[in-house]
Amino acid sequence: MQERIRLLRNTLPDSGPVVYWMSREQRCRDNAALVHAAALASSLQRSLVVVFCLSPSFLAASWRHYEFMLQGLEETEQELAALGISFQLLPDAAPKTLPPFLSQQKAAFLVCDLDPLRLKRLWLKELLAQTSLSVAEVDGHNIVPLWLASGKREYAAYTLRPKIHRLLPHFLTAPASIAVQGPPLAPRIPWEKWRTIGMQHSGPPPVTWLKPGSNAALRRLDYFLEHTLSGYAWRRNDPNQPGQSQLSPYLHFGQLSPQRVAWEVRRLFPSGSPDSDAFLEELIVRRELADNYCFYTPDYDQTTAFPSWAQATLKEHLSDPRPASYLFAQLETAATADPLWNAAQNELVQTGKMHGYLRMYWAKKILEWSSQPQEALEAAVLLNDRYSLDGRDPNGYAGIAWSIGGVHDRPWPSRPVFGKVRSMTFGGAKKKFDTAKYIAAHAPDNQK
Ligand code: FAD
Ligand code: FO1
């Protein structure tokens, strides 16, 4: 447990409570930071307070995302209250609202979530500058703590995988859960009022096919383990099959612990299987590679972060003619001449989730149609962050950088526009799955 914690500052405790600033891990169960904060509270003989700072505009998040997040937080408040733990919602981003809260509470200690996103690193930096209390940062997201898996940006999955696998037996243990801290409290946050914050946002409405919150997340996990994990290895790349777990929105908002998911998969398949191995490769190695990329590469959403071979090859092919070019509005409204791309974009807009295989094709086409790679990167990030439930996540920035800039990939035989960056074509997709069936199911109504 201790290895999951980084003590950022150690000073004499003031007379008030231990405060857990919940941000990435928005759950009561299986939350290592919460468990650590409770342990500190009991060793210091102080109470424990959990606080969430609600930023009114977070990285192009829209109503769809705030609704999903706030409903999940409402459930988390109920679960914390049942354990006698008070939960406070502060009405603005952390650097503004947390320092006054901490001094008003005379907080003895602050525990916070590790979050590799640039904005979150900035929030933590500003917070440390404006306070003087002890601060501990906990990696409650990665099974092998980010700092221990690697102390530097990794080149690809194959360089990080052995480092992860060596440490996995030590870290893939039953998730630690929080004990009762006191008599049950009555939940007291006026959630209806806070949900108007989300509704003020324009953009896509909330989704209805996926229920937010930790309980729904655990039910979805059970369903996946029961019905979808077997066959995952081959079905996951067929967009016409329900082969993915659909867990990414819950993992993104921290409503579900990746450690819980991996632990349950390992319980079902103690010595592994092609399906469980394929799934854990994605859940552990690919996901932790994305965290590694964002944590050690602050310009993770810029072409400057691409490997030098990719920057050179894309530059060399800048003057190649593009097979088509579109305004951002044409991309956003799925109005290109590519029916497969339009169907994928429409699936994203309508459901808030695009199939993993098509995400690669979708991003690579944006590169092929853009005059500059940076323009393609910005368009892909904006569309992904605006419409995808699991957007604004290290997985997204890493996935887009892989697709457009060869991050975590290798050079391929050169093609127009792509150069040595791996390309994907409609013809190639046709060989992989029944594209006509997917288009019929997901194309915009006016293209059916
Ligand atoms: P499953 O196949 O069931 O995977 C289970 C979990 O494993 C996922 O929830 C995720 O945490 C992890 N995982 C799976 N594939 C990857 C991957 N390639 N990289 C990192 N982790 C992975 N994922 C996001 O969470 N948010 C995003 O915004 C996002 N944007 C992407 C953009 C592009 C261009 C690409 C190529 C990939 C992107 N991904 C993103 C990664 C991946 O496509 C999604 O994690 C996955 O499709 C989520 O659906 P699932 O949970 O049903 O997947
Ligand atoms: N984290 C916060 O601490 N406060 C917020 O108000 C907040 C809003 C938000 C909206 C959409 C979204 O996708 C994420 C949001 N997050 C917020 C961050 C999220 O909890 C994750 O920490 C990161 O996005 C993933 O690293």
List its salient traits:
448 residues; alpha/beta; Rossmann fold; Serine Threonine Protein Phosphatase 5, Tetratricopeptide repeat; DNA Cyclobutane Dipyrimidine Photolyase, subunit A, domain 3; 3 domains; 51% helix; 7% strand; globular; binds flavin-adenine dinucleotide; binds ligand FO1
Write structural notes for this entry:
The protein has 448 residues and is of the alpha/beta class. It folds into three domains: 2-140, HUPs (Rossmann fold); 142-174 and 213-297, Serine Threonine Protein Phosphatase 5, Tetratricopeptide repeat (Alpha Horseshoe), CATH 1.25.40.80; 303-447, DNA Cyclobutane Dipyrimidine Photolyase, subunit A, domain 3, CATH 1.10.579. The chain is built from 20 helices and six strands. The chain has a six-stranded mixed sheet, sandwiched between helices. Helix 2 links the parallel strand 3 and strand 4. The longest helix is centred in the middle third of the chain and has 23 residues, at 274-296. The site of ligand FO1 has 16 residues, from helix 2. Ligand FO1 is lined by residues 23-24, 26, 53-55, 58, 61, 65, 69, 115, 117, 253-254, 392-393.
